[in-house]
Prior knowledge:
Helix content is 71%, strand content 0%. The protein is an all-alpha fold.
Amino acid sequence: MKKLFLAAIVATFAAGSAFAQDSCESKAVGKDGKPLAGAAKTSFMKKCMADACAAKAVGSDGKPLAGAAKTSFMKKCEKGGA
C-alpha cells in the first residue's frame, strides 16, 4: 500500500514539473510583449522553475523541507525529475 501511495506522489510531482515547465515557457515574455530569448530567457526560466519547485518542497508530514532534503528535492525538481 505504501509503495502505491509513493508511486502516486512521484507521478504527481512529475506531472507538476512538466506543467511548471509549460507555464514558465508561456510566461517568458518581455515588457514589450515579445518572447524572451538568450540569456534573459535562461535567467527567467531558472527563476521561474525554482519558484515553482519551492512551492512543492513539502515533506510527507506536510512540513516544508529543509537542509539536504530540500537541496536534493530542488535539484531533481528543477531538472524535471520530481
